[in-house]
Every structure is written in structure tokens, then in C-alpha cells.
Amino acid sequence: MPGKVKAYELQSKSKNDLSKQLTELKTELLSLRVQKIAGGSAAKLTKINTVRKSIARVLTVTNQKARQNLREFYKNKKYLPLDLRAKKTRAIRRRLTKHEASLKTLKQRKKDIHFPIRKYAVKA
């Protein structure tokens, strides 16, 4: 098993391939930790770090793929799950939408209809 895995290589793999690679990396990490306790060489000890980072890369890519699939699934739905919505700030999320802000009350609509703005002709 090569030490370092590239994220762009993982992108093209299927979910099953990624899970297989993850189990391989975890077993390799296990054996390296055993060798560490048994008093392994310095090269083995430095390899633990790269294997850990590789595991993190595989998990990151699987998570990215899962989120992408969820985004595709909820694309034209009315509601999005909270973790897929835009974060922004709490104040911005609670703010009135453009449509809500542009609405007029019944009283204001009646006032606009019955008392339109007067137009004056200006002498040149």
C-alpha cells in the first residue's frame, strides 16, 4: 500500500472502492502502531502520520460525495436540510425576503388607489 493518497485520485473512485481503501489504510495503521510498541524503526514511526492523513483524505472524499448526492437529490425540492442551506449569519437568515419586504398592507393599497400622487404640469 503506497503511503500517501492523492485526493484527486480518490474523486474518481466508487463508494465501494473508497470503503475498501479505508479498511486497508486502517489495518495498515493498526500494524504500524503495533510495530511502534514493539520498537520499530524511525521510518515506520513517520509513516503513521502519512497513513493517518490518508485516512482523513478518504473520509473527506466520501463525505464530499455524500453531500453532493444529497444536493442533487434536494435540488428542486421546496425545503433543504439545515446542513445544506447557506450559513450566512443569524440576522441575515431571519431578515425579510425581498418579496416580503415589498408587500403592502391592505390599508396602504387602499390609500394608494383612492389618493394617487398628484401630477402637476410645469410651465417652461
Quick take:
With 124 residues, the chain is an all-alpha fold.
Amino-to-carboxy terminus distance: 89 Å
Q: What characterizes the major β-sheet?
A: none
Into which percentage range does the β-strand content fall?
A: under 5%
Structural class: mainly alpha
**Mean pLDDT metric:** 92
Residue stretches low in confidence (pLDDT < 50, at least 5 long) are: none
Provide a count of the helices.
Answer: 6
Percent of residues in helices comes to 55-70%
**Cα-based radius of gyration, to the nearest Å:** 30 Å
Instruction: Provide the succession of SSEs.
Output: HHHHHH
Kindly state the number of beta strands.
0
What is the 3D shape?
A: rod-shaped
Can you walk me through this structure?
The chain is an all-alpha fold. It has helices at 7-11, 15-38, 42-73, 90-94, 98-102, 106-114. It starts with 6 loop residues before the first helix and ends in a 10-residue tail after the last helix. The mean pLDDT is 92.
Question: How is the secondary structure organized here?
Answer:
Layout: H1 7-11, H2 15-38, H3 42-73, H4 90-94, H5 98-102, H6 106-114
Helix pairs in contact: 2-3
